[in-house]
């Protein structure tokens, strides 16, 4: 029979607890005190010198992660939830850390239009985490990217964005190049918003254009092969980007004249 709880959800008569329930309650009270002092139920040797309490908390985590919550009966689970212990544990678990970083990446993609986090981004932790995910994806069976993690990355088009950044998929590059030509024909400009997708939600034209702009300044133009660079130059895109970077507003006629002049000089 489970103990009666008071209006605050605490055990109303802890003195009536016996056996393992009484022992559990004693440990829980200590955890509750630590929570009040430190604001977290995530205990480590750094913030808790009570080795017995550390061992007990780790055991509660093990039980909590089980499908049926293991030995955490209804009233025990309610006590842990009352002091938000599961929330604290989730935040520091590997899965919790992964989800926290993924949420930051999703926010980055919403703000900037793609998942190619720049190396000098303000949050170096996110930059390092993204590099780790890219590295794992390339490994056999995608490393530690278990199915649900891989599905989440695909949901926000991270995998596709990373392929764009690597530039190894020639078919993808040429497909985006054709989309850029079509965009110019329709809108009269090569200034594609970074968040712009394209004809379908599966396209990432804005992200692709932003990446081409970025890598052309790298030594050897990064993954922009001479053939790809020539295609962009022939289309007049390079001239437009140069004008935009120097603060000159893009103009269709001026753009075409500038592109022709540059091609003439380079010839």
TrEMBL record:
Residues 247-267 are annotated as: Disordered. It holds the Pfam family HA. It comes from the Eukaryota. Residues 21-83, 97-156, 170-237 form the Helicase-associated domain. PANTHER family: HELICASE-ASSOCIATED, HELICASE-ASSOCIATED DOMAIN-CONTAINING PROTEIN. This is Helicase-associated domain-containing protein. It comes from Prymnesium parvum.
